[in-house]
Amino acid sequence: MRGNERIFKKRVERFQELLRKSEIDGAVIRTLSTFIYFTGTKWLRPSLLIPAEGEPVAIVAKGEKELFMQKSWIENVEEFQKTEDLMAMVTMWIGKNGYSTVGMEFSIERDAYILFYEIFKKLNPGVQIEDIRPLSMQLRMIKDDWELENIKKAGKVAIRGMEVAMEEIKPGKSELEIAAEIYRELMLNGSEDPKVYVSATPRAHAEPFRDVRVEKGKFVTVVIGADYNYYYANLTRSFFIGEPSERAKDAIEAMEKVHQIALEKTQLGVTFSQVEKEIAEVYREKGLQEYYITGYTHGVGLLIEEDPITTIVVPHRAMKAQEGMALAMVHAPLMIPEGAVKKEDTVIVGKKLENVTLFDAPVFL
């Protein structure tokens, strides 16, 4: 398995403490990233049962048990052959232990299907269901040394991908052709589940199109999420093709300035909304406020975007930067007619910010 099993056992123990404080008898973990966080391995269609006290139980498909046990520290592993068997095993675990309150993560992540939730409610009508995502994210927001080392390694892989992007971006090339070469480089360097977005038009988080091509007089923005041992680093750069308009020049200048503000001002104990206000002021001064998408930072870890998510969850903007957080900034792009303009790095919060995707790239290609 990857990592020392003591790391994962300690995580479960801390989570169990939170369950007991919240008076939750046990948790049914179906979200993939949290499953990885506690088991130490990625496994599709995951099911992990964590009691408030006692040993966790993993449930895998028939024939997978032996390999799963090689890749995880979990000793109690059961197999199912039919989907209905899986549901029955979860229900039996709850009934056998007399649980009245069970936690589940309310998430949009893969394998956290609303269908599973609805079936669960029908099979367990007397059980109260509590959202335990705030508990798992409370742990996951602050990274330990092993997690941070993986994020740093992922940062190096992301840089290799951006180097390839610069070589591949040429007028006439499609977003898909550029993305394909970046994916290849990332995977050859150990990224098992990379995320690559290439936009040659003003689109945020643009999954590449085969029929959208690079044009002169436009920006091409490349967003890379490279993972190492399941942990991500996020790197974004925008490149202008040809001679820029005045508006494009203003957008580039503004983005450079807000990127610097974010790196300088996001310090221990600083509220994210404080930095957000300074960033918004820069765009107002440049007359670009109508193109700005609010939310300058988000967490990075087992997901390319996780808590704190100031880009999506408004209350998170009132949170403070804490030691051990891994953050991507500046996340929000300027969406001008010439394209999306964005400069984003992954940093680790400590007494000083450590930029793990430090990469000097020319803006003009």
TrEMBL record:
<dbReference type="Pfam" id="PF01321">
    <property type="entry name" value="Creatinase_N"/>
</dbReference>
<feature type="domain" description="Peptidase M24">
    <location>
        <begin position="149"/>
        <end position="350"/>
    </location>
</feature>
<dbReference type="InterPro" id="IPR000587">
    <property type="entry name" value="Creatinase_N"/>
</dbReference>
<dbReference type="InterPro" id="IPR036005">
    <property type="entry name" value="Creatinase/aminopeptidase-like"/>
</dbReference>
<dbReference type="InterPro" id="IPR050659">
    <property type="entry name" value="Peptidase_M24B"/>
</dbReference>
<dbReference type="InterPro" id="IPR000994">
    <property type="entry name" value="Pept_M24"/>
</dbReference>
<dbReference type="InterPro" id="IPR029149">
    <property type="entry name" value="Creatin/AminoP/Spt16_N"/>
</dbReference>
<feature type="domain" description="Creatinase N-terminal">
    <location>
        <begin position="11"/>
        <end position="142"/>
    </location>
</feature>
<dbReference type="Pfam" id="PF00557">
    <property type="entry name" value="Peptidase_M24"/>
</dbReference>
<protein>
    <submittedName>
        <fullName>Proline dipeptidase</fullName>
    </submittedName>
</protein>
